[in-house]
Amino acid sequence: MSEVETIKAYPFLLNGEWQNTTSERTIEIESPSGAETPGAVQAMTESEVNAAISGANEAQKNWARKSFDERAQVLHSWADQLLLMKDEIAEAIMKEAGKGLSSAEKEVVRTADFIKYTAEEGKRLHGELINGGSFNAGSANKFALVNRNPIGVVLAISPFNYPVNLSAAKIAPALIGGNAVVFKPATQGAISGTLMIEALDKAGLPSGLVNLVTGKGAEIGDHLITHPLIDLINFTGGSQTGKSISQKASMVPLILELGGKDPAIVLEDADLDKAAADIASGGFSYSGQRCTAIKRVLVQDEKADELVAKIKEKMNGLKVGAPEDSADVTPLINSKAADYVTGLIDDAVEKGAEVASGNQREGNLIYPTLLDSVTKDMQIAWEEPFGPVIPVIRVESVDEAINIANESEYGLQASIFTKNMEQAIQIGNELEVGSVQINGKTERGPDHFPFLGVKSSGVGGQGIRKSIESMTREKVTVLNMTQG
Ligand SMILES: NC(=O)C1=CN([C@@H]2O[C@H](COP(=O)(O)OP(=O)(O)OC[C@H]3O[C@@H](n4cnc5c(N)ncnc54)[C@H](OP(=O)(O)O)[C@@H]3O)[C@@H](O)[C@H]2O)C=CC1
Ligand SMILES: O=C(O)[C@H](O)COP(=O)(O)O
Q: Is the whole-model pTM more than 0.95?
């Protein structure tokens, strides 16, 4: 048997059947650590993609007629199945996304919690009744019944870094809202995505309601996003990909969760131990491959030396190594990503940044790197590394910190560390971001909080309740009463 024949090729789920592509082409998943491939997925053909979309369109009609409670039962059962498959799914996340095993296990548990909360939140989705008499030119004999209806077929496209959580964060709210889903996982993440759909299938998923589409985004992406039966696109990934989708998908509602360059703004009165601990864990966990990772530090000059020393100290507590050992910093997703990060570090060092810690590389593993005295002419001041490197930019005033924070093309989150709550709130109001964390690291969770990015960080809102609202639309029925 040849080496290629020993690689497991995972099938896709199309209209209730697990199938292999008629193209007979598979895509081998890379191991970020350079170990053997964890398997392969099918490169689906255009006609298989069409069948997935039209099957979902058909299945949605029945699903929309089900009560919230019936839909919720499927979701609860999905969460139970995910937990039963926890070890297998966590191993897949570890092998294809290079995530530390214990974080991968936490991702599965977090996802089950997410799905269960979504099921219950769906049941609490109430419409409203508006009386026409409350408007000057209106009439008290008119009543608007405002209900939330499904949108139809949601195209869910997810990134590699949270291949289970960020996929379920689209699929579960879409389903509870009465939609069908065509799910295209990141190729590097597609085995985990396939396994989570296997769990959903075991939970009693109606045939065609969620169809799994595997294949390279560069090959099938345009076809998917421009298909006339796609009613909404819910995308998480890089800003470049997101912007290109938004240009091509005309008149289709979009939810885009894109890149970030989240600053930690540290004021002179901050608790520096707390700030340093949050910067180290917020910037380096999962090797900085989180949209919400702290990606730059803006610190008042007077406190910069002390803060840098404390961050370095906290960095000693980071475990660097293999995903199997549950390390915090593990090899990056592929060599292109690692080369990109190395290039950013080299550019900064050439232009005068000081390496306070790190700047070592072994294969795709980049040691956590802290760059001090970063200036605005360096690429690392502006670009999203999606890797374990934090630039420290020293500022002379709070206004300078706000200006640099807002000069970024991104606007996901920002942290402010200070004991002065009033000032923190004032600064927060000035920052062009979706969320501000006061005295805490930037992060998405808990998952029922609203989550959104502005500028190049995204369009539309998520977070369990928001996600259900974003993937349903209001339907207004006006009752015109005869004069009583
Ligand atoms: N704001 C947020 O909530 C989050 C944002 N992100 C961002 O995601 C990025 C990292 O994820 P990464 O997976 O590398 O992002 P990519 O943009 O490379 O890929 C995301 C998804 O888009 C698919 N895709 C690629 N090209 C196209 C196309 N032309 N049309 C449609 N789909 C396409 C990919 O498929 P394939 O894998 O086959 O190429 C993948 O499924 C970072 O920038 C990060 O900040 C990540 C998590 C959360
Ligand atoms: O979008 C991401 O990268 C993840 O959802 C981040 O989630 P976290 O901030 O809770 O790690």
A: yes
